[in-house]
TrEMBL record:
<feature type="domain" description="Ig-like">
    <location>
        <begin position="20"/>
        <end position="124"/>
    </location>
</feature>
<keyword id="KW-0796">Tight junction</keyword>
<keyword id="KW-1015">Disulfide bond</keyword>
<dbReference type="Pfam" id="PF13927">
    <property type="entry name" value="Ig_3"/>
</dbReference>
<dbReference type="InterPro" id="IPR003598">
    <property type="entry name" value="Ig_sub2"/>
</dbReference>
<dbReference type="GO" id="GO:0046982">
    <property type="term" value="F:protein heterodimerization activity"/>
</dbReference>
<dbReference type="GO" id="GO:0044291">
    <property type="term" value="C:cell-cell contact zone"/>
</dbReference>
<protein>
    <recommendedName>
        <fullName>Ig-like domain-containing protein</fullName>
    </recommendedName>
</protein>
<keyword id="KW-0393">Immunoglobulin domain</keyword>
<keyword id="KW-0965">Cell junction</keyword>
<keyword id="KW-0732">Signal</keyword>
<dbReference type="InterPro" id="IPR013783">
    <property type="entry name" value="Ig-like_fold"/>
</dbReference>
<dbReference type="GO" id="GO:0005923">
    <property type="term" value="C:bicellular tight junction"/>
</dbReference>
<dbReference type="GO" id="GO:0098632">
    <property type="term" value="F:cell-cell adhesion mediator activity"/>
</dbReference>
<comment type="similarity">
    <text>Belongs to the immunoglobulin superfamily.</text>
</comment>
<dbReference type="GO" id="GO:0098636">
    <property type="term" value="C:protein complex involved in cell adhesion"/>
</dbReference>
<dbReference type="GO" id="GO:0042803">
    <property type="term" value="F:protein homodimerization activity"/>
</dbReference>
Amino acid sequence: MASKSLTAFFILYSFLGYIPSFGVILRTTDKIVWANEFQPIELTCLIESISTNNPRIEWKKIKNGIPSYVYFQNKISGDLEHRAQLIQPANLLILNTSRSDTAEYRCEVAAIDDHKHFDEILISLAVRVKPVVPRCSVPLAVTVGTSSELRCLENEGFPASQYRWFRNNEELPQDPKSSLKFINSTYTINSDTGGLKFRRVRKEDAGEYFCQAKNDAGHAECPAQLMEVYDVDIVGIFLKVLAALAGFIIVMVGICHAHKHGCFSSGKDHTGTNYKLSAQENGVDYTEADEGHFRHKSSFII
């Protein structure tokens, strides 16, 4: 009997053109949203049911647990002030996304004339960032049979980049055993860290290497660098010769410096000794007489 009365109630209001709402109800098309940096993205806040003509609509950004207003009192505010707009009735359109926009966004609708006068919905936004040119480290020369490692890294991309290595413009397979061309190679590639390790370098491993960092937003590559492989350690020999030459120069400079400061002079005593006889000895003046003159220098007794 009660169900028939309720049905008659709805039929009556239908004929009058009015069906009462029991409260505001929200939904969204996606609760987890991905966007590429610098591209537009729309966060949907759909009002499925409402009776209030002018509901209060607010958007809040929640980052690191701290909320801040995005849309408040009918205007965009905060760091989205000049980069976003409200699309009626309650969708938020971000025109130029930035990596700083990665956060949770909460749509809140208050309808005072509804039985359930408030509802909210939470949307998570993650902004993908294209990798920058990675920093690559390739050894200039290695010796056959030795181990070696090539490195590649970039830390701007989001999500974190995956790495691939190329030699002479040909991609190295992740597993060298999967290719007949590389089946004898001893390298391993870590696609998460960007490391390319050779357990034993072969002559065939010589070539130009470059690395590519890639994620869902795009990719970037470092310039190619040449790695040469020698049968003997040419670089090591060169460095040893250079070290020996440097040591020789240091020794010679030391010798010259010591010689300049008299460290190699004779030990003889150069103190001058006056061997000149006294002008007078035993009372006799031996000074030569003037030429052509004879003078007695002492008295004689006859």
